[in-house]
Design goal:
The protein contains eleven helices and 15 strands. With 309 residues, it is an alpha/beta fold. The chain has one domain: NAD(P)-binding Rossmann-like Domain (Rossmann fold, 3-Layer(aba) Sandwich), CATH 3.40.50.720.
Length: 309
């Protein structure tokens, strides 16, 4: 059986995707930067030349899925951290695309991550997969990120760039940072709360990635978001309701900018109302299409994990 190649397997999404592929009986090879500890791990150095010492190990793959990248919201965007964001996304994607393009038997498809941040701040405009990019550091980064997959596309590999919204899962990601505050009654909207938030449940994100791997009609940029984006205010009220907690507080935009600088405007206060046209037109069915459903499922899963630990 042909293997799936996965980078970024240590993150919340990568772990869930690997589990889903294993459940389907699909072998997974992991790209890791450290010394391999498991038989299915392959070491690579995206900054090296070559990136893989033994690229022949990747011959005959079914699909390559590249999810690696430094956390956009981990810290202020200093010039040093911006360089790290670019290197961890653009340079690693290009290194993998070049490696795959040089194989005698390359994979059928390269799935690489991107983000809805490519659209910039678009107010109430409804964005689909064909909408033009916006401006600013994050939008520019995403454009470079997506373009880095071009060597694979030029070699005849179907290249898909998944423009992720906020992924809502029980372990890690956005919810792991904000749920403790909401449980204490300290949750609230960000800024005015009127900015649109494009999101997707972890369950649907994993299913959509597998769908994109198997569906040859999926190509190029793809919005990996729920068909029902919400404003930050609506998200706040739904999360508070699921947790049975009040959410009267608000984080002023000025305070967020003071604390987080440029990242606050680009990642927290910008408005992106994205719709997943390519996925829906291809027949993908969302199992958790509404924010209330997704939040309830994620928090129920988190509570069940606590009970079993």
């Amino acid at each position: 059986m042909r293997s799936f190649l996965l980078s970024g397997a240590s993150g919340m999404l990568g772990k869930a995707l690997q589990q889903a592929l294993n459940t389907r009986g699909l072998p997974v090879l992991q790209l890791v930067r450290r010394k391999p500890a498991l038989s299915n791990e392959i070491q690579w150095d995206p900054a090296g030349s070559p990136a893989l010492q033994n690229p022949a190990a990747l011959e005959g793959l079914s699909a390559a899925i590249h999810l690696g990248g430094a956390n956009l919201a981990a810290r202020r965007w200093t010039s040093t951290y911006k360089q790290k964001l670019v290197a961890s996304r653009v340079e690693s994607t290009r290194a993998l695309a070049i490696t795959l393009a040089g194989l005698r038997h390359p994979p059928e498809v390269l799935i690489s991550a991107s983000a809805v941040g490519i659209y910039g701040d678009r107010s109430d405009e409804l964005i689909d997969d064909t909408s033009l990019p916006g401006s600013g550091f994050l939008a520019d980064l995403c454009q470079q990120w997506e373009a880095a997959a071009q060597p694979a596309a030029e070699a005849g590999i179907r290249a898909v760039q998944l423009r992720f919204g906020v992924v809502l899962g029980s372990e890690g990601g956005t919810l792991s940072r904000i749920v403790p505050l909401f449980r204490l009654g300290l949750g609230g909207r960000l800024g005015s709360g009127r900015q649109w938030m494009s999101w997707i449940s972890l369950t649907d994100a994993v299913a959509a990635i597998v769908f994109a791997c198997k569906n040859p009609s999926i190509n190029g940029p793809v919005n990996l978001t729920s068909p029902n984006p919400v404003t930050n205010g609506q998200f706040t009220l739904n999360l508070a309701a699921v947790l049975h907690r009040p959410a009267f507080l608000a984080a002023p935009a000025s305070a967020l900018r003071f604390a987080l600088g440029e990242m606050a405007d680009a990642a927290l206060l910008s408005s992106v109302r994205a719709f997943p046209s390519k996925l829906t037109n291809a027949g993908f069915q969302f199992s958790q299409p509404t924010i209330s459903h997704a939040l309830a499922a994620a928090l129920r899963s988190k509570d069940n994990s606590r009970a079993l630990s």
